[in-house]
Amino acid sequence: MGGTISIPASLRPLLRKKFGVLYEGSGEDNIGKVSRDLDDPIKLISVGDVTTFHLLKSNIIPDILVIDEKTHRQPACEQMITGTKQSGFKELVVNNPAGSITEELVDALAEALGSNRRVRIFVQGEEDLASLPAIMMAPVGSVVLYGQPGEGMMFVRITASKKEEMTELIDKIIDKQHCKEQLYTMWRKLYGYQHN
Q: Where along the chain is GTP bound (predicted)?
């Protein structure tokens, strides 16, 4: 089962920070910009149902997609659910409550990053914070795309400095946890990807 990192209220404002380039507007409007800026990433990771749906609809196929069949914490429409299910993807199912990052999610990302197949990670709960470990764990030269609610789509090109920025944020979050010792294994897994 493993540990769970919960985001304390005092650090939630840090999560509103834009970790990449924000493409303002609807998912469909942003696909052209994404396509133009992708530049053959090492890994393309998509987090969120709306972002993933628009990518797949435009035939931009992520290596890893993380979805929870929800939009704005409400069930996604049938078209979106169907549109994020593609043949040829290995399916992983994880539990991850809202406002948290579980070791299950970290393990699934690690498995997906090490796979030579495309991987669909279905989150039972919420994938609202999955972009944080994805940014920290993705190899340099990758791209992570995720929705910024009410604003648009975030485009994060993974660099050594971007991974360091995410490491510092996750350090702050872990430092606020009540049972830090129980997170040691997950911490080691996350930090093992810091220099990839």
A: 49-50, 68, 70, 127
70 is in an annotated binding site: yes
Distance separating alpha carbons of residues 14 and 94, to the nearest angstrom? 25
Residue 63 marked as a ligand binder: no
Q: What is the mean pLDDT of residues 48-75?
A: 91
Known binding residue 68? Answer is yes
72 Cβ contact partners less than 8 Å away, ≥ 6 residues apart: 149
- Four-CA torsion 149, 95, 60, 89, nearest 10 degrees: -170
* Rg (the chain; Cα; Å): 15
User: Can you say whether the dihedral through the CA atoms of 125, 61, 190, 114 is positive or negative?
Assistant: positive
| Spatial contact of 138 and 55, defined as CB atoms under 8 Å apart | no
> Residues 142-193: pLDDT tens digits?
999 999 888 899 999 999 999 999 999 988 888 888 776 767 788 788 877 6
Residue 172, marked binder: no
Stretch 75-104: mean pLDDT, rounded?
90
Q: What is the pLDDT at residue 193?
A: 67
pLDDT band at 81 (very low <50, low <70, confident <90, very high): confident
Task: Tell whether residue 50 is among the known ligand binding residues.
Answer: yes
* CA atoms 167, 173, 177, 183: torsion sign: negative
Helix (H) or strand (E) holding 105: helix 103-114
